[in-house]
Structures are given as C-alpha cells and as structure tokens.
Amino acid sequence: MTDDPTETAVKDAPEKKPTGPPKSIFREYLESFAVTLVMAIFGMTFILQAVTVPTGSMQNTILVGDYLLVNKFIFNPGGNPLPFLPMREIERGDIIVFKYPGNSVNPRSDRERGLVKYQINYVKRVIGLPGETVEFRNNQVFVNGNLLPETRVIGDANDDISALETREFEPANPDAKWTVFYSEDTMRPVMEGRSITRSGYNFGVQGKPMVVPPNSFFVMGDSRDRSDDGRGWGFVPRELVIGRAMFVYWSCDRGASNGSMIGCITHPRLSRIGKFVK
Questions:
Q1: Which domain holds residue 197?
Q2: How many domains does the chain have?
Q3: Which of 91, 124, 219, 254 is least crowded, fewest Cβ atoms below 10 Å from its Cβ?
C-alpha cells in the first residue's frame, strides 16, 4: 500500500511563523500596565473609591486616620433596574461620603476655614430623608415629631485626633442601631434636667424644625459636639452623594505618625483594618 502524496506533502510542509516583529518585554509590561490602569480607572469611577478621614466628626464609629473603601454603585435613585446587583435607595442610618455642599447661610465661615464647596469629601450619617421634618432638641433627634432611637454615650478626648474616652450615660436603647457621642459639658444640663439652648446652628435645631427638601438628605456626625454637619450648613443634594462607606482597609495612629505617610505605614492600628463601618 503506497502513501498518499497529499498527506506526505502536508506533513513535510513547514509550520507558519507569526508575521511581524516579536513583542519586547517592555511592550508586554506596558500593555499589562495599560490594562490595569483602565480597570483601576473604571473601578474608581463606577464601583469603589478610597477616602481618608482627617477629622473626628464620626468618632468613635470612624477614627481619625481610618482609610475607607466607598461603595459607589449601591445607591440607585428610582429603584433597581438590575435586580442581580445590590442596589437600593439611601436609607436613614447609612454612613455616606459626599461632596461638601457649602454653607449657603454663612459663606464667610467657609472662606475663613479655607473650605470650597464641591472640593472636599465629607463622611456623615443620614438622619433625615426627603420630605421629613427634623429637629435636634436637648441632645436628642426628632423625625416627624418622633424621637429617633439612638444610644447616647459621653465621650471626650484631649485633642482632635485621639479616640474618645467614653463612659455610659444612660442604658443602651434596645431599638437603637447606632451610638452617638456627646461631651460631658454638653450633657451636664441634660443630666440635671435642664433644657439646652444651642447656638451656632441654623437648621433642624430647637425651635427651628426643618423639612428636608426633595431629593436631599439631612446628615449629622456621630460625635455630635465635634461635627460640622447639617445643623450648621443645611442639606446634602442627592447628586453630591458619592456612595456608602463600606469598611476600613487601612488605619494608622495620626498622633504617633506625626501626619506623615511613612509614619502612617509604620504605626498601623491593626485592630481597625477590615472593620466594617455601620
């Protein structure tokens, strides 16, 4: 039996080599970097964002020196058109990151502190939803005339960056989903049964209940006496909300690190890393 000449010709035919010059190592690294960069930009634009916390307005829920990952896609106005994605409306109690809307009542205050609206990110807790009436009275929050369940704790610190030293003021509220902190000085009148007159606030305080405008939110910091929030400058429009704070991906002791990046790396707070924010 003779071999098929066509089969022999196919076997003997040389393999085709790829045309064009071979990729250099530099080009391969460059392409890998470009793909990684595009994915990072996409993620930072639509999915996640990293923020740091420079002030104590949310202590001890969030500490100065915490680095947070922010979920940017969870909030979807008007419902969830993609049911396979965990999207929902903004709810009371959510800790949100948003662009500072500016102090429309006292713009001079922003200028004196070097604040420019829309240029700095704030982290606060949502207290009032669109259409609700909010009032802050005697260190308690009322929404639509009803007391908002919160556990109040006395918390003080010797400086603006240290965690608050806390002690119990009243039994924990079984209906409360979060804890808020007040200095002993501001809680003393409450303990003595006296009414508190708050100055320096313009919105939602005693004698000034405010209705939250449509498509806006009233926010406050958990460290109530250290927070520059909606009581002073008003409401957060929906379009300024970046997302919900998820968890602490890094944390460092700002006092020990002297504010430097290297010091932040060498003085981590390991117990904070991976902690979910709620």
A1: 48-266
A2: 1
A3: 91
